Amino acid sequence: MGILDLFKRKPEVIEDLDLSWLQADMHSHLIPGIDDGSKSMEESLDLVRRLSQYGLRKIITTPHIMSEYYRNTPEIIKMGLEDLRKAVKNEGIEIEIDAAAEYYMDEIFLEKVKAGEELLTFGDSYILVETGFINRPQMLLEIFFHLEMAGYKPVFAHPERYQYLVADKDLLQDLIDRNIIFQINLLSLTGFYSKQVKDFAETLLEKANVRFFGTDCHNSRYLDMLETLPKSKTFEKIRHSEWLNTSL
């Protein structure tokens, strides 16, 4: 062996990403032009095609509804869904497409809940909700309470990314005690967001009521990184466990 051979490394082999065990992705941003996700129908079709090739049978895409930034309504989302469905069918992509929404938890959202306005849900009355990443909303627990009183099953989107939740162990325990359903982004397990997010995601898998996984796909960069998921030490464990995605 020559001295140069010592510095040669064999290329790392990563197995192809298989998400057939998950069956359905319930968090993504694939309706073009209505939030910070896909910008065009061409981009949406490319993303849907790739997700289909991972073995998913269904996508429930979830555009943001945020009072200050993305003022989407059920009507806007439903119209976008129909356009996406038609385009997917015309392309011959074999996958089911549905839509719900990712609701930002603020005063305006709470008023919608209290007023009984139409809210987009998926599966068995599940509703996907999120907060800002830095500061805890003062009305967080109040909103969860009113959602449950209204008959919804709130699903807390990507809690592993909330810095306030990492820092506030009492709040985390309160959410665990209340049996709030958590949804973790698969990308978090790859280190896509940060090592801290990755570590906290793994902690939540052990401690919290994590029942859903989502891709939270916004663009091709997300899927490029998602394809490294088989390298994650937790991948083998999660793909042999049961998740509510399979019931959707």
From TrEMBL:
EC number: 3.1.3.48
One Gene Ontology term of the molecular function aspect: protein tyrosine phosphatase activity
Keywords linked to the UniProt accession: Hydrolase
Reactions it catalyzes: O-phospho-L-tyrosyl-[protein] + H2O = L-tyrosyl-[protein] + phosphate
Keyword Signal: no
InterPro entries: Caps_polysacc_synth_CpsB/CapC, Pol/histidinol_Pase-like
Tree of life domain: Bacteria
Family: Belongs to the metallo-dependent hydrolases superfamily. CpsB/CapC family.
Protein name per Swiss-Prot or TrEMBL: protein-tyrosine-phosphatase
Organism: Algoriphagus ornithinivorans
